[in-house]
## 1
Amino acid sequence: MAFSPCSSVPAVAAITCLIAVVVGCYWPVEARIPTTLDGPFQPLTVPFDPSLRGNAVDLPDDDHRVRRRVKGFEPEQISVSLSADYDSVWISWITGEYQIGDNIMPLDPKSVQSVVQYGKLGYPPTNEASGYSLVYNQLYPFEGLQNYTSGIIHHVRLTGLKPNTVYFYQCGDPSIPAMSEIHHFRTMPVTGPRSYPERIAVVGDLGLTYNTTATISHLTSNNPDLVLLIGDVTYANLYLTNGTGSDCYSCSFPNSPIHETYQPRWDYWGRYMQSLVSKVPIMVVEGNHEIEEQAENKTFEAYSSRFAFPSEESGSSSTFYYSFNAGGIHFIMIGAYTDFSKSGKQYKWLEQDLANVDRSITPWLVATWHPPWYSTYEAHYREAECMRMEMEELLYSYGVDIVFSGHVHAYERSNRVYDYNLDPCGPVYLTVGDGGNREKMAVHHADEPGHCPEPLTTPDEHLGAGAFCAMNFTSGPAAGKFCWDRQPDYSAFRESSFGHGILEVKNETWALWTWYRNQDSDDKIGDQIYIVRQPDKCRSRYMLTSWIAEL
């Protein structure tokens, strides 16, 4: 059946849609893809295939893809990340070797320059920028545990860039000389309602297993312009400091005096990912596996040190939350493992950031954080309820369109929902914690007999200081219960498989979401839907303010 996106929309939206077709926007004409306008959908669960579970085995230390292949202070683990807008990016890399053991001596960050030479031509470069460098330590004040100090981490911000333009670059220290090979990246399209990245890859809970390599290979074949990593990066905290690992840390190492990590796994991950993220920008938000507690109660040292974040550019004072534009999309990265209360700094920043969004320039508003609010799996069920209760109303009032989360190692797509009720103006929640990590897949649902968690077991000590907020439902089919006895109405589709997603925003109101499973061929689709905004029907706080001002 041929499909026109204008065939099933309200009259006002149909006019907009027809205009978009006339001016040359791409629209599929093959088999009809469902849209959120067809919803809410009847809940669907794809039965779990036990043959897919297998063993989630980490890449070993001697795998050639994770070994150090540079000499001296030559750059490695090179990556690109975005600044707040199209005209600026960050280039990051590491020089020098990490140390791990009892007697470590941190490198001097000032001993090597942080320089990027770049331009629109492959050679010679026409511009040069300098940045800053640092090292971080992971220290354990317990006998027998090994300490770690990183190589020198460099971050350089390039500014004054043109939109949708390929730039070539080398990074390193030209005075040694120790410069990288020539790499390239493409800037984001100009910020505006008619320009969007073609494909945005979304993935969570990656780790560094053979499943991970399948995910990244599949993702790379889709030629993304941007990668969103929704927390839980390396799973270095599934290891002791001597390199002994386990699928379940607490099960295997119950007597550890502190939750240890094996920090070289971060270096392995950076080396493996370089071929992708040295040319495709990656934007990361923290997950629980990045906490990595150490001496003096320090946490998140690796996460906050290794990645560059547009925090300052977006008015944030933290690496845990920030925002950026990618064409006509405004992304908000929200921290679940820092204070999210209404009286906290993050909430006040979020209020200001949302108030500053001009939906006539960036029509799409997308939020991400690690633990999902609307997951129906037994694992982590309603774990982030305190966060939801603090922030959901604010995000809803500003008309957030899509929310991406991870944490649960499976895939799930919601119907449009607000406060557990079907709502045509609520966001679509997408859980993509199925990147392939060592902890394996989530396969049981809270609505299955015997799998509804005891309420007091659901709080996470790192989320809202472990406060208990998830009470029994007070209305609807699950009134008086902690779990539904069937797949909840707000859950549209769920499946336990490893994979990744691709978001393709077509214009101001239509976006195509596609989820791919690792076990399928590159062109086979696991789940697909058009997410359609209805600004004429769902007036956000911003739109109402603008409308009143016009009157």
## 2
Amino acid sequence: MLRIRTVLWTLSVALSVVAGADFKAHNCSEVRQASIAKGFSFENVPLQEMSGDHLRVCPQGSTCCTSEMEDKFGQRSKLELENLVDETSHELRSTFVSRHKKFDEFFLELLENTERSLNEMFVRTYGKPYMQNSEVFQNLFAELKRYYTGGNVNLEEMLNDFWSRLLERMFTLLNSQYVITEDYLECISKYTDQLKPFGDVPKKLKAQVTRAFIVARTFVQGLSVGREVASRVSKVSSTPACIRALTKMMYCTYCQAMPSVKPCNNYCLNVMKGCLANQADLDPEWNQYIDAMLLVAQRLEGPFNIESVMEPIDVKISEAIMNMQDNSVQLSYKVFQGCGQPKPSGMGGRSTRGVSDVFNARFRPYSPEERPTTAAGTSLDRLRIVWSAMQHSVIDIKEKLKLFKKFWSNLPEDICKPHRVTAGNATDDDQCWNGHTKGRYFPEVLKDGLTNQVNNPEVGVDITRPDTFIRQQIMALRVMTNKLKNAYNGNDIYFQDSSDEGSGSGSGSGCTEACVTEFDFASTEAPVVGADRSGSGPMEDSAAATHPAPSAALLASLALSALALHRLWR
């Protein structure tokens, strides 16, 4: 069928040329006017048609074009294709640019306001003890921001480290009557998972924060990659064969003294499919990338969205602190039993300090009726308004992304729309330019992609030499799609923990297989105050663990009793 159509088309072209030879030469004044209207400034436009033997692209019969005009038409054709692609892809590119900026600004603002809210609340609640140890919390938010902005941060390890540092600071504050050394703190840290000083808060918060930040960072990175790929691929690099085909399609009508005749639609499609063959090859990977972006966008609306995790983080951390405060006596006893009795600090006045002296305020969540009117409260209220707008933005970007599927393979059709280039969509239109004369365009429209252009009737395409630059963009999309799919499943592609998400194992105890990893505690309510054991290995002496050393008070009591008896006997 294709061969029959091609033969018929060739015969019609030949008959048109022969018939045209019998006509008298046309006046070229219309060509001059049309050229001026298009911004050309030709010095010598022929008054009437002349022989076209000097032409290299347009038909060489009678012509209104000089060699200079044909060359200028070629330069303009290249520029017009670039402009057409730029115009057609403008909405795509502007959407990625604006949405990336909007989501990025919101996530960063959320981090800053959450840190400010926590700081103000903790200053009011805990006062001086917090201010003296505020760098622990500052480091937490600094690392969260560093992760979000692309830093090489293992979220799970970082959060485990935060809770370890917080445990060290709080244990030292709650046991200020003792000298707590670095070695002693190291012993405590090995048994954090068994002690659970902060209850279930670290385990739950780690799962929530990790998933929320992975989703937020990956989504914004995905928007950034889409922005860059769209921007780069929209900058078309035309081959000489493409420029010749474009010149023939767009401007050879000028040489034929009919500048107002537009190209046939199917003719335009074949030219554009040949010129944009490599761009069309981007489509399969682009479509998978769009699908992955839509999946991750769902997470921004679900329970793991970053706003619902970060807004109450100050409440959750404070609950963890209160949990440790409430159980400090039992916790200290277990630590002393496992790691030994630390040496007294020698400051008798401090030995009687209670927990309430260290943390002189208790925290309770605000009810809706008593929301704080401080900057912390108003900043979070403002963020809720912003987040409400962001929810609409998520819906908006999902709709936009759906429209952008198959964008690159649809590019020829979008460019060849009547209002842009062609005369119309009718394939049997006798009033359009078919590359040789005004008449029907018979060849079939080819499929998309480089390999399908092997028999393109309008553009010579070397299908054995794919565009390296486009292949690089395909690879960038492939890598990003993999990241997005991992983020949807809650996994960071760089840091995938082999343990189960909810195991609570954290960074591990730090022990080898020969190391004891469980405490063996006797059920008593008060700690046994004994001699210092900082020189012995924690939990390795089972006898000592089962039969704790006598307390200092007991030894003192026995000594006083012995002295009294000795005096009585005398």
## 3
Amino acid sequence: MAEVAAVGQLGGAATAATLLAALFLAVLFRHQRRRRQRGAPVEGIPAPVDRCAVADGEGIAALDGPTDVIIVGAGVAGSALAYTLGKDGRRVHVIERDLTEPDRIVGELLQPGGYLKLVELGLQDCVDEIDAQRVLGYALFKDGKNTKLSYPLEKFHSDVAGRSFHNGRFIQRMREKAASLPNVQLEQGTVTSLLEENGTVKGVQYKNKSGEELKAHAPLTIVCDGCFSNLRRALCSPKVESPSCFVGLVLENCELPHRNHGHVILANPSPILFYPISSTEVRCLVDVPGQKVPSIASGEMANYLKTVVAPQIPPEIYDSFVAAIDKGSIRTMPNRSMAAAPHPTPGALLMGDAFNMRHPLTGGGMTVALSDIVVLRNLLKPLRNLHDASSLCKYLESFYTLRKPVASTINTLAGALYKVFSASPDKARDEMRQACFDYLSLGGVCSNGPIALLSGLNPRPLSLVAHFFAVAIFGVGRLMLPLPSPKRMWIGARLISGACGIIFPIIKAEGVRQMFFPATVPAYYRAPPEAEF
């Protein structure tokens, strides 16, 4: 009986101890939850990201463990890539020159195809809470006439559309999203060079916010430092062209003729764009051919805008345009194009505008960048680690082929449309321009096909070439009616010749084989190097 009593006492003590332990754990858990809600760090649990720190240009705490990927630049491409790789479990170190909110006049219109890529990456909420505007298509204006081209969105979810916004607000949302992951470190610093050993990139050298010279190492460095990249020369053969400059204005409290549409004015000498960037603001971009623009400081630019550009603006927005000029907030930005010409380098990769640019007329840059990120994510996903640089480099050569259908279609369309939409003293070029406007005005497949290409919803190179030459043949047909004459036949021949002269050099720069026959490129079939990893 004494033994039974002893066992009973032990059992009672054990039960009491268990209850006390459970009570202690419950109190501890509640305490930790309250600390997390207040933003205090809890042992073993990453502290929540201070979004204000990103907005104020502060860095986010260093990573635990060795870095898997260094990303140079936290613009649209860099931020989206950091979030994507971080979500896949990679430890990512992002080094950005300036973490404060950017203030740019381009990168403000995301096509529906780009929005779909944003959804695929889980970043669609980055267009929320920034007063982004839905864009449902374009309106085209020429010589007092206009036609509306709507995106073919019937087969998509109701949320799918283009989005236009302030570029800086969008980028800050992307940075915040990336920084919300505990395995992503955002740091403000300027990368000065790539660290190389025996032809393999091992990391970067950079100056942090305090001016200290530091080194960061990782098995893969991805350079996304934008159109003015100072690192691209080590990783590609850049042939940068600057066909024109954009002159940017913001029109306030202005109602565009076609709501929720971008507006393209086929003006002389080159196109003018209007699109909403908030509920009260409309961005105007005036294309000025060449690399030299009238001086803003001397008033020459304001005079040019009032005397040359304003008379070609639709009357509904004329007053708002002139008021924006008088306000004086005129800015310029060089338009650049650069075909992708990479040097496959072990340990490094180029992305975004540092890698590939096209004329921003069609607003396709962000769509290409986001599409590239989807391709790269899918290639890296099966790899357990990234330490065999030579095998990884050989495997990632497939990236350059797999990206081509989307990238080359958008790039070629941007370059070709800019040349077609620009005025020319050449009668054949002028006929091509008029034919393009009339062809798009026909509606049906004549407008749905090209606008599906432009929107990134149907990025097929063969469809692009078919529509481009359909415009040229349509133009020749117009010249032959009601009766052909030797002069009209000569202009028609020159129109076809001019069309070939516009599109074929762009296709050649993109790569005929990769663009139209990617399946014939050996790298297309490259399998993940599982044996080495």
## 4
Amino acid sequence: MLSYYCYLLCFTTLCLAEDPYVYFDWTLSYITASPLGVKQQVIGINGQFPGPILNVTTNWNVVVNVKNDLDEPMLLTWNGIQQRKDTWQDGVSGTNCPIPAGWNWTYEFQVKDQIGSFFYFPSLSFQRAAGGYGGITINNRNVIPLPFATPDGDITLFISDWFIKSHKELRKEIETGVGLGAPDGILINGLGPYHYDNAVVSGGIAYQTVNVEPGKTYRLRVHNVGVSTSLNFRIQSHNLLLVETEGSYTVQQNYTSLDIHVGQSYSFLVTMDQNASSDYYIVASPRFVNSSDSSKLVGVSVLHYSNSQGPASGPLPDPPMESDTFFSMSQARSIRWNVSAGAARPNPQGSFKYGEITVTDVFILHNRPAELIEGKWRTTLSGISYLAPSTPLKLAEQFNIPGVFKLDFPNKMMNRPAKVDTSVINGTYKAFVEIIFQNNDTTVQSYHLDGYAFFVVGMDYGLWTENSRSTYNKWDGVARCTTQVFPGAWTAILVFLDNPGIWNLRAQNLDSWYLGQETYVSVVNPENSELPVPANTIFCGALSPLQK
């Protein structure tokens, strides 16, 4: 990977207080890998799978030149990066024209007022199922201390379900209503399972080894970058001290394992306090998956102390009871915001007293399993399956192209047949909005909102009613960008629409997203404070004649 740091006006009073720039050149291409012992094409970045980590600091400017050496158009999106006033860098179909095969395009964005653990991935055409993902680490500025002792090291782990079929085969099956079925395995950092059991794991599969020193404490950043499977993460004989999720410092508490749902990111402090009589298992196992042989669906890596006396052995640490449907929800409710910690700014996170703000608008979003609409398999939010237009929404808005989308997404489920449409939520600038996700599907779904961190204030089984508000956490509900919604349950979030632009609200589960379970939120500042159209904008659809 070619990367280098460039500081503006260096050698003069700390660059005259300018925020530094960091530059990357990335080529996305197919490379051959065998994560589960079978050769297949995966998407690599500069020949790496997973891709490189963007390691930056609050307020830095990031410039990434992306060359598309795939055989189809692509975009990269920066999951959780808020792109303040700059929708143009978001990298989804509603904001950017795709980067054609053989072309390159340069992203330039600032990680303004953010800290924490995030990741990037290709956002089009089911491509994330083939890789192309990597981590984003945003460090605190030196003037703002961490709410814990500085760790001795920083380790990123990507956990994911994995299919041997290509992303192109998978999306064809989704289109025909076949469904994904159970994955072929679980990967950790793009590698298959350690051969912990010869009857389950065949020899010759490469696995991840995490090397550590005894007595040291490491920060582990764990991202579920998979297709559609919730995963339980745990380390044999070690506690996971949760300290941060998706840019928010949390109340610090120990877990023996944690369910991490699709698109979610967490960071833990893990102290190497064992006697190292052997190596230890790092495990990611699926949750809520119907499979005749779930033992083969376990990702296993090795935690290796420098003074280890032998390989990991014995049974894997136990997962939660699959029959305990309340375990995962109770665990999710236990994750709280650290209201006294500073983060990107020195004032405590809890200075924003979200529970005291009056809600100005409410949206109740119902999903359903995939269904036939106009002869095609589609998924919906509130009875609408999103149709991506050939002209991105943001470009249509900027250049006043009529008829591309409608600002008519309903506040609640309408009594009408499901339809395919380009319907967008008409958000009001600086409105405080309550969104309830009601999951009528049979699987856990994750939902993500670009451009913002929202407050997760409640979740429960059953149908949400107005009486459900009495259960809301209005003090220290965690602020994040991706939340899970359990089957037959609801999750409520609150979000302050202070970031103008057009922002993607989507299912993170790729099968649901690909078939139309998304919309956008349009937020217009009357004072027009957004950044201008980039000079290197790619034009498509109705604006194709503008392309140079």
